[in-house]
Amino acid sequence: MTEIATARRSRITPEREAELYEAVLELLREVGYDALTMDAVAARTRSSKATLYRQWGGKAELVAKAVRHGKPGGSADDVDTGSLRSDLHALTLRSDDCEMEQNSALMRGLAMAVHSNPDLLKAFKEHLVEPEMAEFHRVLQRAVDRGEVRADNPAMRFVPHMMIGAFAARTILDEQPPTQAFLLSYIDAVVLPALGAPTT
Prior knowledge:
Blueprint: H1 3-9, H2 14-31, H3 38-45, H4 49-56, H5 59-69, H6 84-92, H7 97-116, H8 118-146, H9 159-174, H10 180-195
Helix pairs in contact: 2-3, 2-5, 5-8, 6-10, 7-8, 9-10
């Protein structure tokens, strides 16, 4: 990348970037991915379309980064409580029930769009799926290093599937949003036993 292009991309301050992401999330909740346009984002944020395209390249990357930005702060590296159960509980507690309900509704709305938009799928994998998988891997690796979980346990590679599945299925099966209490009980009843890890 040239120095000029780098300078152009660095004009947006972190505070302004956060404002833009919040506006994108608001628009997503209001109209959904397919109806969201760069024109609408530009109007909502008092930005030029040229700036948006220069900074993010297109709608898919902007939306994926906005969703990533909207997730609770910190990373798995910030959560090392000394046990797998406490680590998974701490990661779950980074979102309160209101945030979980909003995120659940947002992800349901984006699910269909991801499958019908290859650019969005690619951006989601890069900015959301791969970082989340890496987080789970770090948490699980620490559990292996502590001797809580065997490295060859076949359930290891399904932990992200279990956690995401519980989050998504709560609304479908129970007609209720996911909550901290639900996910914490799910971790203790399903995830930890599958891994052969202590549940207390």
